[in-house]
User: Fold this.
Amino acid sequence: MTVMTKAAATLAAAALVTGAALTGAEAQTTKLRIQTHYSPEQTSGKLAQEFFDKIELMSNGEIEIEPFFSSSVVKTVETFDAAATGILDCDMTGGAYQTGKNSAFQFVGDIMGGYATPYQQLSWLYYGGGLEAAQELYNKFDMQLVGWWVYGQESLASKKPITGVADLKEFKFRSPPGMETKIFEKLGAKPIVMDFTEVYTALETGVIDATDMSGLANNKSAGLYDIVKYTNYPGFHSMPSDHLACNKNVWDSMPEHHRAIISTAMESLALRTALTFEKANAEAAAELKEQGVTLSAWSEEDLAAFRAAAQATWPEFADTPEAKALVESHLSYLSDLGLVADK
Assistant:
């Protein structure tokens, strides 16, 4: 065999080895079944689909996602357990649905009266020790918290002006159960717990003066401001955190680069969600003003009064070690941001 022939044989052998290695790498596939409570037509549903598409593209098809929208496999509140037990692989709803398991989920699901913007709230998660603190909670239930996507502050829709704390006295409004009712009661309001389906009739008949439903753009698209002509914007009382949480065994078994792709895509989704709704809410605000809806921005004094009432209520719901640890973490970071007086 000539020198050239030997060289060619060596290169051919190397090519076979390289090809085998590439084949092995391509064989590293991850298939995930993910459920969200959003429909594919909703803005958040469209953002979720973009997230899935980006993951598949960045992984060159190694990660395949089977999405289930509108809680089509199990009920929204059951998504977390379905992922933990293997019916699904990941839950893309929110921690607030799991407060029955541990009150600590309140402080990763809807903190209430804490951060002023999605960026501050995400900053706590990624740079304030929040992800590490929350991870301990999720891991106790065999789940891995991958990240958040936060659409921003919610606004109230009201038949009466809501210009500040003084307007909350005897203020009858639809409220979700739990911590929110306690916070507003401290400020003189009369929260009434009812299902979303009852809101429109309750507003028209005077059973309630207002409702807590969602952000300004979502409220507008739901037709609430066809019935009532007052709202507050920007919002201040509630800023839910939707999450991506995966079965821990599934997460741990993924190749490291797959976990990195999903985590990075989640951070991108968080930013895109905040920016998308900031634009949508601003556009809705301009349109509502033209339609004669009065938008009230609360003063710093009134915002501080609400935060004080909310933060005074947190300890009442921090009845587990995990919840206490999360409250302490939030208060420390909020103090750094100047949103609470003392740590």
Q: What stands out?
A: Residues 1-25 have pLDDT under 50 and may be disordered.
